[in-house]
Amino acid sequence: MPIFSTPFASLDLHRQPPQRDDPLQAFDAADEYLLSHLHEQGLRADARVLLLNDGFGALACSLAPHARVTSSGDSHLGALALAHNLAANQLASEAVRFVPASEAVAGPFDWVLIRVPKTLALLEEQLIRLHGQLAPGARVIAAAMVKHLPRAAGELLEQYIGPLQASLAVKKARLLFATPQDKPAPRSPYPSHYRLEQPALELVNHANLFCREGLDIGTRAFLPHLPSGLGQARVADLGCGNGVLGIACALTNPEARLTLVDESYMAVQSARENWRAALGERAVEIRAGDGLAEQAADSLDLVLCNPPFHQQQVVGDFLAWRMFQQARAALVTGGELWIVGNRHLGYHAKLKRLFRGVEQVAANPKFVVLRARK
User: Fold this and answer.
1) Same domain (yes/no): 48, 169
2) Which residue numbers delimit the RlmG N-terminal domain (predicted)?
3) Closest to 191 (Cα-Cα) out of 213, 171, 175
4) Are 249 and 354 members of one domain?
């Protein structure tokens, strides 16, 4: 893998989850541009730096020896990458304080360096939370590759921080400089809520959730076909989002033992609140995780999954394939993985490579529900 070289450091960086012969880098030209600008401006050793959405830790690892660094993001895989990359480059784990996006950061900060996220609602919530957390004279800079920088990102920076100035593009990357102004405390529009009729639920959705304003059509196709009569089965909702699949399964299977896992901290936060609202104090495990990587082998009877087809701006089925492999390892012999997916993704053929029996449970013109038996 290429070395990430900037005026601050030369680093060996890797993405998470690991992939054999991974063609993708853990950094890009926007990281380079941001760090070059920061070096030109001068960074005091006692400067308090907040990093938002620092993908795989390229910014944090570069700045850790040079400032007091706090990093916040919504990806558990990103947090794992940060920890791995600190260790791989002989940097102390405590050199960077990581704060999940589901928790508030505590300033004041002299610099706020933002990688513009794919979900602008996450950016908006993060900017709202900066109110009262900036030191006098603080500087706020957002960075992105031009192709991933919508006009709305700049509008949010102006709305919540202050006047905006854009840099020239360098290597197809751009910086946005926002000058902080005194503004009244903003009111967050998050979390959002929506209602389901079947099952009857009102669901809480924090800012970075997929399909935050309504049930996504894949899950809508899956819900009527969830298995019942499971008794005391051990069930995982893998990539649980707001928890709707796991909650619906629990409602029709009162003795089932549920585990809900997602790599998004805001998804886990939403799922916990939704479980409590629907099922009170019924026992459950809800956690942020790298899928089922931490799940004991042969410890589940059933896995439910509406797999993702992207990681940040990268589209592909590598995350889904990894989740299928994790599910197989975690299931007992005879256990089942139930998934919903777009027809064109060809999950039926992929599952046949891992499982001894694959059946179509239901289908509509766009989606198929599949059951794979170990």
Assistant:
1) yes
2) 1-181
3) 213
4) yes
Q: Do residues 166 and 223 share a domain?
A: no
Condensed to tens digits (0 to 9), the pLDDT of residues 310-326 reads 444 444 567 888 899 99
C-alpha to C-alpha distances, 51 to 55, 97, 100, 188, 336, nearest whole angstrom: 10, 10, 12, 21, 41
Q: How far apart are CA 105 and CA 2, in angstroms?
A: 32
Q: Which of 132-136, 166-170, 209-213, 225-229 has the lowest mean pLDDT?
A: 209-213
Helix (H) / strand (E) element for 13: namely none
Q: What is the pLDDT confidence band of residue 210, given thresholds at 50, 70 and 90?
A: confident
Give the contacts of 20 (CB within 8 A, at least 6 positions apart).
none
Tally of structural domains, the chain: 2
DSSP 220-285: HHHGGG-----TT-EEEEET-TTSHHHHHHHHH-TT-EEEEEESBHHHHHHHHHHHHHHHTT---E
